[in-house]
Amino acid sequence: MEGKQFTIRCQKNSQDSVRISNPAFIPLRLKRIEARFDGGTWERLLVGVPETERAVLIAGIHDVVPINEAIRRALVADERVEGATVALGHHIRVA
Fold first, then answer.
1. Which of 5, 79, 82, 95 could, after both became Cys, cross-link 25 (CB 3.0–4.6 A)?
2. Is position 3 within any domain?
């Protein structure tokens, strides 16, 4: 659509978009993990994680988010990433 003050058109994206269909299937190595620990727990982590601390680590996980760029690189390298695909989509540009 073209007008006197602006133009709207649909164009192909210049970069592929990652579409997450099921985040639970994406491997942990392709996610960012944000966690919060008290200082004592963090110091114990630096030394090594014994089996008894695993429950504390799991309870301390604050957020787990897929990293789109890591997923895109894995898929481009022909790795299978369950729960994600890469597709060249469209976006709306207003000029």
1. 82
2. no
70 domain-assigned? yes
Instruction: Give the global pTM.
Output: 0.58
How many domains does one find in the chain?
1
Residue 1 located in a structural domain: no
Collect contacts of 31-35 with beta carbons under 8 A, ≥24 apart: 31/64, 31/65, 31/66, 31/67, 32/64, 32/65, 32/66, 32/67, 33/61, 33/63, 33/64, 34/61, 34/62, 34/63, 34/64, 34/65, 35/60, 35/61, 35/62
What are 65's strand-pairing partners? 32
- Domain membership of residue 61 (yes or no) is yes
With a cut of 70, list the residues of the chain below it in pLDDT.
none
